[in-house]
Amino acid sequence: SWRWGGSLLSPPKAPVGWKQACAWGWDVPALAGGELTAVGPRSFTGEDCAELHVHGGPAVLSGVLRALGRLPGLRPAEPGEFTRRAFRRGKLDLTAAEGLGDLIRAETEAQRRQALRQMDGELGRLYQRWSKTLTRALAHLEAYIDFSEDDNVEEEVLSQVDAIVRALEQEIGAHLQDGRRGELLRGGVHAVIAGPPNVGKSSLLNLLCQRPAAIVSPVAGTTRDVVEVALNVGGYPLVLSDTAGLRDATDPVEQEGVSRARDRLQHADLVLAVLDAAAVPTEPAGLGAALGSLLPPPAPPCILVLNKADLLREEGGALRDACARGDPLPPTTLLSCKTGEGLDHLLELLARQLARLCGDPLAGSPSLTQSRHSLHLGDCAAALARYGRERRRDLGLAAERLRLARRHLGRITGHVGAEDVLDIIFRDFCIGK
Ligand SMILES: Nc1nc2c(ncn2[C@@H]2O[C@H](COP(=O)(O)OP(=O)(O)OP(=O)(O)O)[C@@H](O)[C@H]2O)c(=O)[nH]1
Ligand SMILES: [Mg+2]
C-alpha cells in the first residue's frame, strides 16, 4: 500500500508493491523530490508500506496525489483505514485504536498522557487479563461439569471458581466506580458558572477565557442563553458555561434563560457559584446558608467565588478569614473581576478540583475512558452476578453466564465480533490514520 503524508492510497484487494511501481516505470523519488521508505511487516499496519517525504506545499501535495491517483488500482484511504488495517492484522486492539483517536484529538497535556497510555495498550491488557481469568474459571467449571461424576475433579474446584468470579466482580465494580475520571478527562470537565443576577458571572467567564465571550452590563438579567467556552487549566480540559442569573423572573425570555441555567446545573460536573462579596454574611455559617439557598443539595462539587472584592471595606477582613477557614464551606475565594485580585487563587482552586475529578492519568490502573467500555463492563458484571445466583441451581446455565461475561469483555477490546462498533470507531479517525 502507498502511504502519502496524511492519506493512504491503496487498492483493497491488490496491494501495489514497490516492485510493481518500479515495473510501471514510475520514478517515485523523482516525482516526490524526496526520499522513499519501504517498511517490512513491522510497519504501523503490519503491511508493506511506502512513505513519500516531500515538500508540504499544497500545490506539491495535490500534484503528487493527482499523479498517484492516475495509477491503476490506487485510491485515497477511507477515514481511519490505516488503523483499521492495523487492527485487522492484530497490531493493536480496539481500546488502543480508541486511544490513538483520542491522542489525535487531545488538546491538553493530561488528555495526551491518558490517550498515550491507552494507545500503549494498558487498558486493553487489563481487560485481556480479566478475560484470561474468566477463561480459566470457565475451563475449570466445564471440567467439573464433564468429569466430576468420574471423581476425577474435586468438589473444591467449584469453590475456587466462585472465589475467582467474586474477586473479578469486585475488581470490575471498583473500575466502574472511578467517578468517571477517565471520561471526564477525555471529554472535558463541564463546569457551570451560576449565581444571582448581576454578581459578575459573565465577567468571570470573560476573565478566565481572556476575551469578551459573554455580554457584560450593569443591567440585572443580561445573560439568557448559555455561553460556553473550552479552556485548558493546568493541563486539564475545562468546558465552562456562563448562565442566566438565578431568580424568579417575570419576563418569559429571562424565564427560559433561568430554566436553561437550572438544566445545566443539573448536569454539571463542577459549579463555580458566584455571589456578591459585599452582599453576603461574613461568617462561614451564614455564607454556607447563602450558598445552600443558591444550590440546594445534592449539589455537584463546587467552588464559591465572592466577587467584586474591590468594593469591600472593613468587612473584607472578616470575609478573608471565613474563606481561609473553609469548613463548612467548599473551596472559597475572594475575587475582583475588575482588578484581577484573587484570580491566581481561583485558578489554583480550579486546577486542584480538576485534578481531583480527573485524577492523575499516569497513576494507578488505567481509567475507563468511554461510555462504550462502561456499558460492556456493566453487562459483564451483571453476568457475573447472575453466575453467583444460578450456580447452585444449574451449573450449565452458570457456565453460560461466564461465557457471556467473557464475550462482553471481548467486545471492548474487539477480540469478539464487534463489527457494528468498528465502523463508528474508525470513522472518527482523521483521514489517513
Ligand atoms: N466593581 C466591580 N464590578 C464588577 C465586577 N465584576 C463585574 N462587575 C460589574 O457588575 C456588573 C454585572 O456584571 P456581569 O458580568 O454582567 O454580571 P452577571 O452575573 O453576568 O449578570 P447577569 O447576566 O445579568 O446575571 C457589570 O457592570 C460589571 O462591570 C467586579 O469585580 N468589581
Ligand atoms: Mg451575565
UniProtKB/TrEMBL annotation:
Keyword line: GTP-binding, Hydrolase, Nucleotide-binding, tRNA processing
GO molecular function: GTP binding; GTPase activity
Gene3D superfamilies assigned to the protein according to its UniProt record, in alphabetical order: P-loop containing nucleotide triphosphate hydrolases, Probable tRNA modification gtpase trme, domain 1, tRNA modification GTPase MnmE domain 2
InterPro entries per the UniProt record, alphabetical: G_TrmE, GTP-bd, GTP-bd_TrmE_N, GTPase_MnmE, MnmE_dom2, MnmE_helical, P-loop_NTPase, Small_GTP-bd
The UniProt record lists the keyword rRNA-binding: no
A cellular-component GO term for this protein: mitochondrion
Every TrmE-type G domain range: 188-355
Transmembrane region(s): none
GO biological process: tRNA methylation; tRNA wobble uridine modification
Family: Belongs to the TRAFAC class TrmE-Era-EngA-EngB-Septin-like GTPase superfamily. TrmE GTPase family.
This protein's name: GTP binding protein 3, mitochondrial
